[in-house]
Amino acid sequence: MADVQMPQLGETVTEGTITKWFKKVGDTVKADEPLFEVSTDKVDTEVPSPVAGVLVEIRAAEGDVGEVGRVIAVVGNPAALAEAPPASPVTLPPPAPAEPVAPEGAAAPEPTPVPAAEPAPAEPASIEDNRLLSPVVRRLVNEHGLDVDAIVGTGPG
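The structure corresponding to this sequence follows.
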């Protein structure tokens, strides 16, 4: 059995959204064959299977957001599928515990400063004038039929 984890897709990327599954439970997969597509604020990419075998379990549905390192799927040998107990195809982890609250009269802990992320190089959109738009922006523009000229940017360039 091999766990398929949410990959680290950039130095500052901490999570990704599963946008599409290419395989379903019970399908045979080859090593390095794409299993699912993941989208982050910087990149959309296909995630390959680390090993050959059968997709035994899917732990994140399309649209789910997973943290880097979270097990998204399990690939095993065909016998493992027969031995696996019947379960729903998607099981979600328990919710994260809430942030601790300081008792009354005690000073709240200072938040840890987060260093500013360096901008990633953008790829040209599938728009005729070759504007530089992130993959997520390109997808949203195409999905919603937006007019890029009507959108006022807030960042540099």
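Residues 23 and 35 are 6 Å apart (CA to CA).
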